[in-house]
Each structure stands twice: as C-alpha cells, then as structure tokens.
Amino acid sequence: MISAYIMGAKKVIPIDRFPQRLEMAKKFAKAEVINYKKVNAGETLKETTGGRGPNACIDAVGLADFYDQTKQKLRLETDRSHVLREMIVACRKGRTFSIMSVNGAFVDKIPFGAGLNKGLIFRMGQMHRQKYIKNNIFLIADDLGWKT
User: Fold this and answer.
1) What share of the chain is helix, strand, coil (3-state, %, to 5)?
2) Could you give the 3-state DSSP secondary structure of residue 99?
C-alpha cells in the first residue's frame, strides 16, 4: 500500500477480512479500509468513488469463497477466483486490473466479457521484487520515520 502511494496513488483502499491486517493498513498506510465480511466491498467502492469505481484494482493476495473452495476440494478448479470476479465488476471503465499474487492455475466464472465491455487493461504476472524492493524498502522506512 505504501508502495502504491510512493508510485503516485492519491488514495489506496485495502480490502480484507482480518482485523489485524486492516489495523496495520490504517496505521502504516493511513488507508481507508473495507472489511468485506461487514460490508459489500463492491458497493462500498462505488460509494467511495462517486459511483465510478477505482482507477486501478490490484489483487496482491487472492481470496476464496465457498464456491471456489468446493471446486478446489473436488479438484475441478485449482485457484481462487472470487476476488478476481469482484475486481472486474468494481474497476472503473478503461482503467487497470492488475494481478500480482498467487493466482497461477485454473479458475472458473471470470467475467471477462464485463472486463472487455469496460475496456479494462489487464496486467498480470509475478511481482518483479528484485527490481523494486531495495528502493521501496528505503522509501517506506523513510516515510515511516525509521532509521536505515
């Protein structure tokens, strides 16, 4: 999240269900957070962005829901697509949909037609941490007031 600010984001809205991670996001990234177990994340994003949706949606972890978990247990699907479906629906038209997480297998029920109709720019791949980590670690530490 802090890296997103460093790279020019004006606002970052992390979505999670674990209170400790949401608290860390508030504390360190000074982010406005959404707990998807308490509110509808898509609707909240629409309200927060004036009905337009976020400029960019980034899946940096991956999530599972009952449908996906069941298909995984039956070996009909090998990855979690719940978050990807929600991101495509939430993302603002003509903007970026990015996956840099552990989604690397077969997924089901991805609404690519919605992404196509919205003109989303799909970017995906493993994060090039070797390229960014050294610079971002120092920038984040400096931003947090830590001595390096």
Assistant:
1) 45, 10, 45
2) strand
Residue pair 25/62 in contact by the 8 Å Cβ criterion: no
pTM for the structure as a whole? 0.67
HSE-CB for 123 with a 13 A CA cutoff: 13
Q: Read off the pLDDT of residues 62-92 as tens digits, 9 standing for 90 and up.
A: 545 555 566 667 766 554 567 778 888 889 9
pLDDT tens profile 100-119: 765 555 667 788 899 999 99
Partnered with residue 99 across adjacent β-strands are 59, 124
User: From CA 140, how far away is CA 112, in angstroms rounded?
Assistant: 35
- Hey, what are 10's tokens? 């004006």
